[in-house]
Amino acid sequence: MKFGRTVLRLFRLVARPVKDNTSFFIWMYLLGIISSWMVLPRWRGAHLYDNLWLELLLDIYLLCVILSIMPKRIRRWIRGLFYAVAYSVTLVDTFCFVKFESTLNPTMLLLVGETTGREAGEFLGSYLRADVIFSGVGVVFLVLLAHIFSAVFPWKSLPFYRYLQHPLPRQFCNVASIAFSALLITAVIMSWHNKKEMVHMFTRTNVGQVEHELTRKECAQFYLPLYRLAFSLFSNQLAAKQVVRLQAAQKGVVVDSCDYRSPCIVLIIGESYNKYHSQLYGYDKETTPLQVERMKTGRLVPYSDVIAPWNLTSFVFKNVFSTHVVGQEGEWCDYPLFTTVFRQAGYQVTFITNQFLPKAKEAVYDFSGGFFLNDPKLSAIQFDLRNSSVHRFDDGILKDYDQMVEQGKIKFGAGTIESASQRDVKANLVIFHVMGQHVNYNSRYPKSHRRWYSDDYDRPDLSKRKRDILSHYDNATIYNDSIVDQILHRFEDKDAVVIYFSDHGEECFDDGFQYHGRNHSAVIDARLARQEFDVPFWIWCSHDYAVKHADVFSEIVAAKNRRMMTDALPHLLFYLAGLHTKDYHEEYNVLSPSYDEKRPRIIKAKVDYDKVVEEK
């Protein structure tokens, strides 16, 4: 009997924090549920976070516990402060979803940090309209008004108020306390994994690690606006640390001399390109007819054995732009970026991207890959010209380039340009970054360019839906072929060399595998290594270039079967430019007689690609 009373007192003690903060518990729980509904995507199959109801109960209960141990005289002020923060962040989060189809993310905070007070005022003035008020923002605002009303309304003046003050039957309180305790225990069990993952996420030491965590199916779910704000602040803090290191590394750039061997170097970076879906590499569908025609002239040279160091765009960009190669001491952010070196050598550097521009609706992956390109100081150090907007299809970047040429912003040959400051340039480096075959594949090409349909694939092992996806991928590939060909066409009358490669590969139902995309958490075997890390890589030379630089052209042809990893690309570029600097290492230049072809090609910083493939 005594033991039973002790247990009941324990249950009542567990429920006491909620009893002491009943209004806080009810309104914050209601706000959490409604805010989750208001930012639920409108596409078919979208659903709330599976553990929303229980984990939210646990989170608010823990806040009530903290409030309960505070002195009463300051408890109300702490509650008021939390109300202000919770409602403010929820309103902002919902507003972002309504206007940009994305909840709070690192890029949004980055953009806010770069906005002046006047710009912020103009921004709010342009967006705070009736459609916003009658959206999810208005619903959250109604919850706030209802909360304020409940707090200021004179409930004591109502006739039935005194009946509400009567204590509930003791037996009812005991049952309620037991039920709540059971619910709380269930919430702890069901929420333990996500809480553990949150702690794990917030102990990462760089943005790349954060991004890699997000590729795991069991990664942390930041299901509340306050969590999303904390995660965004944390990500920006990590990025800022690497930006500081990068800025310091750029200050150490020294160019001894430059021969301008190649007066016009063009780099085209593709996206999510499965090499084995390229006609150029033996695919049975004509996905690259224009590249094949150029190969027949002998001036487009496909390389047979090139891989990416990662199967994540952001990781690849960091490894490709940095002069650091896998295996060297330090990290990518401790070394100069090749674009900085080129610009200091007297090249006009132009970067035209259809992905890495600061956008409100930007995933962490884009933020991670683009923060070092979009940081104002680093961008000014690296580039003379950049485009200012992304496009639905990749033909938009052709228009960006044409406009720059028509306006005289791109100078071919020696001359003076207007950039951050007037400076003399003697050659050109133009970088195109296309969306290529990035998911969703059916969004990567105009419907007028569609060539293949599900019925064109003799794959009884695949459902019609999967054959549709496969056809969209191949259609995106042939559209990419047309974009790349148009880029080459713009440099045919110049003394130009063009390098094309994709950031990484992509699974697309090959080898009988029922999967498309990339499998980041899987063990890397030979099949996965080939599908996700093998990339198309080729070098094209204009007629003038092949004639004037016959020796270099011969070296390009001679090296086509050498093993290579794209992290060493800057050293090839330095050689093509005739650029002499301490940051150039001949053993990483695939065209050099001193090239180290036996350098281990380590993918994902842990697996030797060649050993994995040979073990098959």
Describe this structure in words.
The chain is α/β, with parallel strands linked by helices. Helices cover 50% and strands 11% of the residues. The chain has 24 helices and 17 strands. The chain has a seven-stranded mixed sheet with strand order 3-13-10-2-9-5-6, with helices on both faces. The chain has a two-stranded antiparallel sheet with strand order 1-15. A two-stranded parallel sheet has the order 4-14. Helix 2 runs antiparallel to helix 3 (52-68), helix 2 (22-38) packs parallel to helix 4 and helix 14 (313-321) packs parallel to helix 16. It is elongated, with a radius of gyration of 29 Å. The termini are far apart. The relative contact order is 0.11.
Can you describe this structure in just a few lines?
Helix content is 50%, strand content 11%. The protein is an alpha/beta fold and 616 residues long.
Strand content: 5-15%
Q: What is the chains' assembly state?
A: single chain
Binned, the helix content reads 40-55%
Task: Please state the overall shape, judged from the principal axes of the Cα atoms.
Answer: elongated
Instruction: Average the pLDDT over all residues and give the rounded result.
Output: 90
The neighbouring-strand order within the major sheet is 3-13-10-2-9-5-6
User: Which class do the helix and strand fractions yield?
Assistant: alpha/beta
Low-confidence stretches: none
Distance between the termini: 69 Å
* Total DSSP helices: 24
Largest sheet: 7 strands, mixed
Total number of strands? 17
